[in-house]
Design goal:
The complex is a heterodimer of chains A (about 220) and B (about 240).
Chain A: H1 2-10, H2 13-31, H3 35-57, H4 60-77, H5 88-120, H6 129-138, H7 146-159, H8 162-173, H9 178-185, H10 189-214
Helix pairs in contact in A: 2-3, 3-4, 3-5, 3-8, 4-5, 5-7, 5-9, 6-10, 8-10, 9-10
Chain B: H1 9-23, H2 28-40, H3 42-58, H4 70-90, H5 94-106, H6 112-131, H7 141-188, H8 195-204, H9 207-220, H10 231-244
Helix pairs in contact in B: 1-2, 1-3, 2-3, 7-9
The chains are: A mainly alpha (about 220), B mainly alpha (about 240).
Bound molecules: zinc ion.
Zinc ion binds next to α1 and α3 of chain B.
């Protein structure tokens, strides 16, 4: 993650501008019905959209469905994209975020219960996350496997409030800069920064609690 | 908590600088102020510790590979959506079609000029109805249906008369065809090989046909046909006879 972040930051400005121009060209072709250009756009953006959806919604299945929905929406509205207002990447991210917010509003209750169970290990069947962590701590050499740790962070992320979650995902997982995030969320940069702070802090508290339970 | 202060301008500034501090982008005088407040304010110190910890946790999350079929599924879904959109454009719903047709039908009427004409027309009709001493309220479905049925009776009577004409006509035709066939059979029987010639001859010679027609008319007891001389004339008189019926 950090290396990826560094890589993006260290990329020459010319390369980013060039890429933006290529994408803009693709979008123009796509708006005029060029299916090859559309395929290229899907190729370039589907992994990014899938990751945002996966981190926000939590499950791979939901993420797949949501990603498809995002692209159907992008396909239908690509003609309305205004390159003067935002980059295409920011625009696609905005479409994704709006769709996720709608989805979250519809399924708020189910989801909250699901993620609570998963994080707090309230599931009665099988070993809970706390059990697994405890088991690992008991054996001297063992460390919590990084895969399990990542799973734990992923679950905790689903628990923080959507306002904070989306800000944190866009910053810490998508490497968007504060100005871009402000564009996507349609709030001032100061609000973006404040939400990121609170989101990170809330996540840390959740994970500390989980650890304490495990120990 | 010890040293905790009410969140004020300093805490707000600390919050604003926190992301930059974690990103490692805080330098100089701003960084000094930030560090000073972190030492002075327990709440902000805790926020810094938790936010840093949270950022560290999040940095462990890797970008996921997209499922293998995702790209394919997206393209399938969007081409499906495109087809549906194209179909909707080509094949509008029944309601849209009705609206369109209604607009087309009433387009010439839906102009101010025609609106006036329609108004005038209505006025005239009302006037005529008044003169005929028919009230608009008489034109209720019940009254109209009464008018309709009485008109229908007249139509039915006319229709019955017409049917009689057609029935007689068709019977005449049948009889004529029957005699034609009989004649043909009589001619065909003697010599099958000369059939062609005989048929031609038959067409040229109208005498037998005329005779058959005479027989028929005698059967029907219609005297006018006694005056028959030639085929053309006979047809003319036949037509005349039909008119008389
Ligand atoms: Zn403070």
């Amino acid at each position: 993650m950090l290396t990826l972040f560094t890589a993006i930051q260290s990329r020459p400005v010319e390369a980013r501008v060039e890429e933006a121009q290529v994408v803009a060209q693709l979008v123009r072709r796509c708006a005029s019905g060029d299916s090859v250009a559309w395929e290229e756009i899907v190729q370039r953006f589907h992994r990014r959209i899938y990751n945002i959806c996966y981190r926000f919604a939590g499950s791979a299945d939901d993420a797949q469905d949501l990603t498809q929905e995002v692209f159907i929406k992008v396909y239908r509205t690509v003609g309305s994209f205004d390159g003067e207002k935002a980059s295409f990447g920011t625009w696609v991210t905005t479409v994704t975020r709006n769709l996720l917010v709608d989805h979250f509003r519809k399924t708020r209750n189910d989801r909250a219960t699901d993620s609570m169970d998963a994080v707090m290990g309230a599931d009665e069947d099988g070993p809970t996350l706390a059990d697994r962590l405890a088991g690992d701590v008991e054996s001297p050499q063992a460390h919590v496997e990084s895969r399990e740790r990542r799973e734990m962070v992923h679950r905790a992320l689903l628990q923080i409030s959507p306002d904070l979650r989306e800000a944190v995902i866009l910053r810490d997982l998508q490497d968007l800069d504060y100005r871009e995030i402000a564009q996507v969320l349609k709030v001032p940069e100061g609000t973006v920064k404040s939400r990121i702070n609170r989101g990170r802090a809330e996540l840390a508290r959740l994970l500390q609690r989980t650890y304490r339970q495990a120990l | 908590m010890l040293g905790e202060t009410k969140p004020g301008t300093q805490c707000a500034e600390f919050d604003a600088l926190l992301t930059d501090a974690i990103d490692g982008n805080l330098t100089g005088e701003r960084r000094e102020r930030f560090e000073q407040h972190r030492a002075d304010c327990a709440a902000c110190s805790t926020l810094f510790a938790e936010a840093s910890s949270g950022a560290a946790w999040l940095s462990e999350l890797e970008e996921m590979e997209a499922p293998r079929n995702l790209m394919h599924n997206i393209l399938a879904a969007t081409s499906e959506a495109a087809k549906a959109a194209a179909k909707a454009e080509r094949d509008p719903s029944a309601w849209e079609r009705l609206l369109k047709q209604t607009r087309m039908v009433f387009a010439p009427v839906l102009t101010p000029r025609f609106g006036m004409s329609m108004g005038m027309a209505f006025f005239s009709i009302t006037l005529v109805l008044n003169m005929a001493q028919i009230k608009i309220t008489d034109l209720t479905p019940h009254n109209l249906s009464h008018t309709f049925y009485s008109s229908q009776n007249k139509v039915m009577k006319y229709y019955e008369n017409m049917r009689l004409v057609y029935e007689i006509e068709s019977r005449v035709r049948d009889l004529r065809n029957a005699t034609d066939e009989k004649q043909q059979n009589q001619q065909n029987q003697p010599n099958q090989r000369q059939e062609k010639n005989q048929t031609r001859e038959q067409n040229q010679n109208s005498e037998p046909e005329r005779r058959q027609l005479h027989e028929y008319t005698r059967e029907q007891n219609v005297q006018v046909l006694a005056l028959l001389n030639g085929k053309d004339e006979s047809l003319g008189i036949l037509a005349k006879q039909r008119r008389q019926i």
